[in-house]
Write a structure and sequence with these properties.
- With about 475 residues, this protein is an alpha+beta fold.
- It has a domain of about 140 residues: Orthogonal Bundle (Neutral Protease, domain 2).
- The chain has 12 helices and 25 strands.
- The strands form 7 sheets. Strands 8-7-11-5-4-14-17-16 form an 8-stranded mixed β-sheet, with no helix packed on it. A 4-stranded antiparallel β-sheet has the order 12-13-18-15, with no helix packed on it.
- It is globular and about 65 Å long.
- The relative contact order is 0.10.
- Its EC number is 3.4.11.2.
- This is Aminopeptidase N.
- Keywords: Hydrolase, Metal-binding, Metalloprotease, Protease, Signal, Zinc.
- It comes from Nocardioides humi.
């Protein structure tokens, strides 16, 4: 993710709930009633105990004039509770109208505005797979959660994109990156609109004045990365030089002259994807691409396989969001505190891309960033704990910029060849999965054969600028 305020700064600079065996305490105490809480202390209501989502079949119809969304989502789940599951919860903001579990009507109620509590006719056997179908309807734009009002829409265009939360505005889910699932998404809108989503476009059916478009994501995906956009779009399709299919869409709400420029920048997706594949290993999904919305958005987002951008798109942000396909999407965070693994890594790949295309070297990038920040060694830039920044700071500038500096310094400390191995091993070992900062530290130490605890403590957790020493990957004293 890139926020516009952060982008402007960079352009000017140029280049907790405790657990028992992984189960929330509330659930461990009463395994038969799946907890309304997940395991993430940053947002304890995200995700739910007792269940594991396997597949979402999301079908929604959106009315542009009223802003009303009507949906039916079927979720294939596994009961992970240690006892038969008498009830469970889903994250959903819109009002539910009917719920069935394995084809039978189930009782349900809202437990607060964010939780849908479901009680099936019969308890679900521990370890069993089951299917829950939820029907719901409402105006997503009328709802907020965790201080966020995330629905982006006008009378001509809509795009469901945001982080760390988006799913509860348009489908019920276990809304946490640690519970990834595959997706089928069908969106019905007036036939004059096009619909863009994650993965592969499976088809489009027109019925009267409406059309339903079906998108499929066969790789496990975090719920916040699931998206759809509907509007008047110019679409470009093809394959990259390496043979990866791409699907790019640009809003016709953007004026023609500006739209042509935006299309040219978005068209660089193909070559950038190929470069990242050569750098990191096989592209993790079946298709690539992007969407530029005409709505006024102040951030770009790495929606799995197809990032979304504002009309201010530029090449560096395309590199950033496509790097997230490896760091953030295929390898998702286990907890939101691990966000450095997403944002710092994607920012570092921006620096590597510039260096590989005739610009500033990675070494010069680190020296420049170090010189600009080391003079205030206890400033907010350095005080933030990158291994646990806090819920209100996961998108602060140090997570991006200092996060990228950590990798550049690690490159100096263990060598470029070892860092290359670390990054490739990381995305291969955790493909389609989740990982933590501690796991990355352990991998770097294993590959390099060095003890790196002091290095990572100095850069991530010390609360001040690291000493300018070779052990910290720094060769230039602070001016």
């Amino acid at each position: 993710m890139r926020r516009l305020a952060l982008l402007l700064v960079l352009l000017l600079c140029l280049p907790g709930l405790s657990t028992v065996s992984g189960v929330p305490v509330a659930e461990a105490e009463d395994a038969g009633n799946g907890s309304v809480h997940g395991t993430d202390p940053y947002w304890p209501k995200d995700g739910n105990g007792g269940t594991d989502a396997q597949h979402y079949d999301v079908r929604v119809r959106y009315d542009f004039a009223s802003g009303r969304l009507k949906g039916r989502t079927a979720i294939t789940m596994t009961a992970t509770a240690t006892a038969d599951l008498r009830s469970f919860s889903l994250d959903l903001l819109l009002p539910a109208t009917k719920v069935k579990v394995d084809g039978r009507r189930a009782r349900f109620r809202k437990a607060g505005k964010h939780e849908l509590r479901v009680t099936p006719k019969q308890p679900i056997a521990a370890g069993a797979q089951f299917r829950v179908v939820v029907k719901y309807a409402g105006r997503p734009g009328a709802y907020g959660y965790a201080g966020e009002r995330n629905w982006l829409a006008s009378r001509n265009e809509v795009v469901a994109m945001n982080q760390p939360h988006m799913a509860p505005w348009w489908f019920p889910s276990n809304d946490h990156p640690s519970d990834k699932a595959t997706f089928d998404v069908r969106v019905t809108v007036p036939k004059g609109k096009k619909v863009v989503g994650n993965g592969v476009r499976m088809g489009r059916k027109v019925k009267g004045r409406l059309a339903t478009t079906h998108w499929r994501m066969t790789d496990p995906m975090a719920t916040y990365l699931a998206f759809f956009a509907a509007g008047r779009f110019v679409v470009d399709r093809g394959t990259t030089a390496a043979g990866i299919p791409f699907y790019n869409a640009v809003s016709r709400e953007i004026a023609p002259r500006e739209r042509r420029q935006v299309r040219r920048i978005l068209a660089r997706t193909a070559a950038i994807t190929d470069w990242l594949q050569a750098r990191l290993g096989t592209y993790p999904f079946a298709t690539t691409g992007g969407l530029v919305t005409g709505l006024d958005v102040g951030f770009a987002l790495e929606n799995q396989s197809r990032p979304t951008y504002g009309r201010w798109i530029y090449p560096g942000v395309v590199v950033h969001e496509l790097a997230h396909q490896w760091f953030g999407d295929s390898v998702a965070v286990q907890r939101w505190r691990d966000i450095w693994l997403n944002e710092g890594f994607a920012t570092y790949l921006e620096a590597e891309y510039i260096a590989a295309h005739g610009g500033e070297s990675v070494e010069a990038y680190l020296e420049r960033m170090w010189a600009a920040s080391c003079g205030t060694p206890t400033s907010a830039f350095w005080r933030l704990n990158l291994a646990d920044p806090g819920r209100d700071h996961i998108f602060d500038a140090p997570v991006y910029d200092r996060g990228a500096m950590v990798l550049a310094a690690l490159r100096n400390r263990i060598g470029a060849a070892h860092l290359d191995t670390v990054l490739r091993r990381w995305v291969a070992d955790h493909h389609d999965g989740n990982a933590t900062v501690e796991q990355f530290e352990a991998l770097a130490a294993t590959v390099s054969g060095e003890s790196l605890q002091g290095f990572f403590d100095a850069w991530l957790r010390s609360g001040r600028a690291p000493a300018a020493t070779p052990a910290n990957g720094l060769t230039t004293a602070c001016a």
